[in-house]
C-alpha cells in the first residue's frame, strides 16, 4: 500500500485533531494509531514540497506527550531548532497548510507567530531556545504567573555555546523550567525498569530535596561528624544515580535530570514530563529518539536521515529533481584540488559538513577537517588559532550563520591580520527557508571589517578562480560567497580591467551596470533590453567587492550613470560602498543602488521573492531606462575628469 493510500485509509483519527485538547482525550491505543497516521501524513505532504522530514519523524511521540502534559499556548513550548516543529504544527490546527509547506502562501518551515498563537520564537538559529526560556521563566516568576516553559533542544544544538551560558544562568535562577533534550545522535539504550523509574521519580520529588536540605543543615551543625557524614551520604546518593543515568554533568550545574527515556514511548515521556512539570525548578528530561523513525528510507539514509531534502518519491525516498552541478559541488571539488597542492590548507565546519561541501575534503583528508558542532563563534576563533599555527583554514558555513560570529571575525581574525578564508554557501535570497535563513547581510555587515576582502563569483569558473585567490591571501581574512542551487552557466568576460571583469560593453558609455555575483547574467540581459531603447550599457562584475577596486571607480568616471545590483541588503552594501569610494575620489557621477531592502521578507521561491523586490531583468531594465532618460531631460553641470553631475 502506498503512503498516500495509507494516509487516506488510516487518517481518520488525525482528522479529529484540531488542537491540543483533542490529543489529551485519547487513549494509549489511540495515541499509537495517531502517531502512525502523523508519520504517513508527514511523508505524503513533505515528499511533495521538500522540508525537514527526518527530524520530525523522530519527534512524533515526544510532541504528543508534550501537548498532553502542558497547556499550549498558556504554557510556552519552544523548539531548538524550529525545523522539528512540524508535528507541533499538525497538533495545533495547521494540517491544511502542509499542502503548501515552505511555499508562497503556505506554512513556514519554522515556528511562526503569524501562523499561530502556539508559536513564539521564529529565528530558528540553533542554541538560542534556552536563553529565551530563561528569560520567560524569570518574567513569569516576577509577575507571579503559574505558567510552564518548555524548551525542546536537539543534542546538536547543545554543542552551541549559548546553550551552556543559558544553562549556567538557569541553574542559578532556579525557576521552574523544563528542558527536553531530544537526543537522536547517541546510540545507547534508554534506562528502563522499576528501579530507574523509582529513582527518576525520587529525584524529582520536592519532599526528597527538602529532606536532603534538612539533613544537610542538621549535620552541618554537628561538629566533627556532621559535615563528613553528609558528604558521604550525598556521595552514595549521587553514585547510585550515576550508575543508572548519565546525568552528572547537568546535575553538577544544579539542574535536575531525568532519563534517558525512550522518546518513542508516549507513556514514558509523559510520565517524565509530568514529574518535571511538578518539580518546581529547572529539570532536564533526556529523551532518546531516532531521526527518521518509522520510515525506512530515512532510517537507512546514512548521510543525514533525510534531514531536509527537496521533493522526493514517498515510496523510495529518492529525490525527484534531476541531478545538477551545484555551487557547493564546485567549491568542494576545487577545495580538494587546492588541498592536494597545499598541505597547509585545512577545513572547518559547524555541524554542516555535507551541506557545505567540507565532507568531500574530509573523505580524502580526514585529519585536516574539523567539525566544531553548532558553534560558529568558536569556529572563527579556532580558525584564528590554526592560522597562527601556520595553516590556512577554510571555514565553510551558510551565509546566515556567519552573522553569529561577527565579533570573532572582527577582533580575533581581522585585527590579527590572519589568513582565514570564510566560504559562505546560500548567500542572498534562498527562498523556502524564510527570513532567518536568507544570506543577505554578509556584504553589508562584514564590509566594515578592516582588511577583510569579499569575493562574489558569478559562475563555476570564477568560483574556482576566486577560491584560489582567497587562499593565496596571507595578510588578512577573506570571504567567498555564492548562492544555493544549480551553478550558473559560465559567463566569460570580454576583458579584464585590474580585478574587474567586463561582461558587455557598447560604443556608447551611458550606464555602468555593476552586477554582483549571481546577478551577472541578469546584468547582461538588462544591457540588451536597454540597448533596444538606444542607450549603451557597460556591464561589469567586480569579482572582489570589498574593498572597492580602484579600477571600478575609474570605470564609473567614464559613464553618465552608475547602477549597482546585488543580492544583499542595500544599506551598507556594494552600491553604498562604491558611492562612497566615488565621493572620496571626487567622481560626481550619480549612483543608483538596487538590492534587497533591510526587512523580514517572507518565504517563497527565490524567483517569487526577487520579483516582489523588483530584482528581475525586466524591472531593472525599466528602472535603468527611466533613470538615464531622466538625465537627458535634466540640466547638466560640468564635472572634473569628464564626469557628469546630476542636478
Structural notes for this entry:
By secondary structure, the protein is of the alpha/beta class. The chain is built from 27 helices and 20 strands. The strands form four sheets. It has a seven-stranded mixed sheet, sandwiched between helices. It has a six-stranded mixed sheet with strand order 12-13-15-14-17-18, with helices on both faces. α5 packs across α13, α15 (327-341) runs parallel beside α17 and α18 (376-388) packs parallel to α20. The radius of gyration is 28 Å and the shape is globular. It starts with a helix and ends with a strand. Mean pLDDT is 87; it is low at 1-10, 186-196, 236-246 and 638-647.
By secondary-structure content and strand pairing, the structural class works out as alpha/beta
Number of strands: 20
What is the percentage of strand-forming residues?
A: 15-25%
Rg from alpha-carbon coordinates: 28 Å
- Assembly type of the shown chains? single chain
Count of runs of 4 or more consecutive helical residues: 27
**Main β-sheet, in a few words?**
7 strands, mixed
Summarize the amount of helix as a percent range.
Answer: 40-55%
Spatial strand order of the main sheet: 7-6-8-9-11-10-16
**Which word captures the global form?**
globular
Low-confidence stretches: 1-10, 186-196, 236-246, 638-647
- Taking the alpha carbons of the first and last residues, their distance comes to 73 Å
Mean pLDDT: 87
Amino acid at each position: 500500500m502506498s503512503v498516500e493510500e495509507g494516509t487516506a485509509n488510516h487518517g481518520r483519527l488525525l482528522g479529529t485533531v484540531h488542537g491540543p485538547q483533542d490529543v489529551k482525550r485519547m487513549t494509549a491505543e489511540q495515541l499509537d494509531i495517531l502517531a502512525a497516521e502523523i508519520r504517513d501524513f508527514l511523508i505524503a505532504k513533505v515528499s511533495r514540497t521538500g522540508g525537514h522530514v527526518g527530524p520530525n519523524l523522530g519527534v512524533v511521540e515526544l510532541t504528543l506527550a508534550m501537548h498532553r502534559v502542558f497547556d499550549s499556548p498558556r504554557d510556552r513550548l519552544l523548539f531548538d531548532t524550529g525545523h522539528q516543529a512540524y508535528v507541533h504544527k499538525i497538533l495545533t490546527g495547521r494540517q491544511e497548510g502542509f499542502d503548501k509547506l515552505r511555499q508562497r502562501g503556505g506554512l513556514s518551515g519554522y515556528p511562526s507567530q503569524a501562523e499561530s498563537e502556539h508559536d513564539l520564537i521564529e529565528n530558528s538559529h540553533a542554541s538560542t531556545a534556552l536563553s529565551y526560556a530563561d528569560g520567560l521563566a524569570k518574567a513569569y516568576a516576577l509577575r507571579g504567573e503559574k505558567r510552564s516553559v518548555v524548551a525542546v533542544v536537539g543534542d546538536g544544538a547543545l554543542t552551541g555555546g549559548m546553550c551552556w551560558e543559558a544553562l549556567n544562568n538557569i541553574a542559578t535562577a532556579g525557576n521552574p523550567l523544563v528542558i527536553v533534550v531530544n537526543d537522536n545522535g547517541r546510540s545507547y539504550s534508554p534506562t528502563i525498569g522499576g528501579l530507574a523509574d523509582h529513582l527518576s521519580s525520587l529525584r524529582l520529588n520536592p519532599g526528597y530535596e527538602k529532606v536532603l536540605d534538612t539533613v544537610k543543615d542538621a549535620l552541618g551543625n554537628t561538629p566533627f561528624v556532621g559535615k563528613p557524614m553528609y558528604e558521604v551520604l550525598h556521595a552514595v546518593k549521587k553514585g547510585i544515580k550515576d550508575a543508572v543515568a548519565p546525568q552528572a554533568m547537568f546535575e553538577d550545574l544544579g539542574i535536575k535530570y531525568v532519563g534517558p527515556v525512550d522518546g518513542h514511548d508516549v507513556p514514558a515521556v509523559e510520565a517524565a514530563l509530568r514529574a518535571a512539570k511538578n518539580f518546581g525548578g529547572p529539570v532536564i528530561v533526556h529523551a532518546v529518539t531516532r531521526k527518521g523513525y518509522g520510515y525506512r528510507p530515512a532510517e537507512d539514509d546514512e548521510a543525514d536521515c533525510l534531514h531536509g531534502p527537496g521533493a522526493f518519491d514517498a515510496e523510495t525516498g529518492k529525490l525527484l529533481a534531476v541531478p545538477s552541478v551545484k555551487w557547493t559541488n564546485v567549491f568542494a571539488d576545487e577545495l580538494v584540488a587546492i588541498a592536494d597542492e597545499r598541505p597547509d590548507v585545512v577545513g572547518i565546519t559547524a555541524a554542516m559538513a555535507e551541506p557545505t561541501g567540507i565532507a568531500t575534503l574530509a573523505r580524502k583528508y580526514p585529519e585536516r577537517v574539523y567539525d566544531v558542532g553548532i558553534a560558529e563563534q568558536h569556529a572563527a576563533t579556532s580558525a584564528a588559532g590554526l592560522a597562527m599555527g601556520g595553516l590556512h583554514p577554510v571555514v565553510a558555513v551558510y551565509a546566515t550563520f556567519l552573522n553569529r560570529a561577527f565579533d570573532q571575525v572582527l577582533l580575533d581574525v581581522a585585527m590579527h591580520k590572519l589568513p582565514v578564508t570564510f566560504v559562505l554557501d546560500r548567500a542572498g535570497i534562498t527562498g523556502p527557508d524564510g527570513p532567518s535563513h536568507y544570506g543577505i547581510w554578509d556584504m553589508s555587515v562584514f564590509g566594515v571589517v578592516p582588511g577583510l576582502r569579499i569575493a562574489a563569483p558569478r559562475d563555476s569558473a570564477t568560483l574556482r578562480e576566486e577560491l584560489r585567490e582567497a587562499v593565496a591571501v596571507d595578510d588578512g581574512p577573506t570571504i567567498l560567497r555564492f548562492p544555493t542551487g544549480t551553478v550558473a552557466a559560465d559567463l566569460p568576460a570580454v576583458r579584464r580591467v585590474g580585478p574587474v571583469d567586463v561582461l558587455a560593453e557598447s560604443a556608447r558609455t551611458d550606464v555602468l551596470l555593476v552586477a554582483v555575483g549571481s546577478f551577472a547574467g541578469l546584468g547582461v540581459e538588462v544591457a540588451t533590453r536597454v540597448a533596444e531603447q538606444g542607450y549603451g550599457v557597460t556591464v561589469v562584475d567586480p569579482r572582489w567587492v570589498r574593498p572597492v577596486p580602484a579600477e571600478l571607480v575609474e570605470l564609473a568616471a567614464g559613464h553618465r550613470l552608475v547602477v549597482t545590483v546585488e543580492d544583499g541588503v542595500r544599506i551598507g552594501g556594494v552600491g553604498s560602498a562604491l558611492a562612497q569610494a566615488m565621493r572620496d575620489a571626487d567622481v560626481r557621477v550619480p549612483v543608483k543602488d538596487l538590492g534587497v531592502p533591510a526587512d523580514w521578507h517572507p518565504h517563497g521561491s527565490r524567483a517569487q521573492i526577487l520579483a516582489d523586490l523588483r530584482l528581475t531583468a525586466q524591472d531593472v531594465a525599466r528602472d535603468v531606462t527611466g533613470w538615464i532618460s531622466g538625465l537627458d531631460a535634466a540640466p547638466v553641470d560640468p564635472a572634473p575628469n569628464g564626469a557628469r553631475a546630476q542636478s
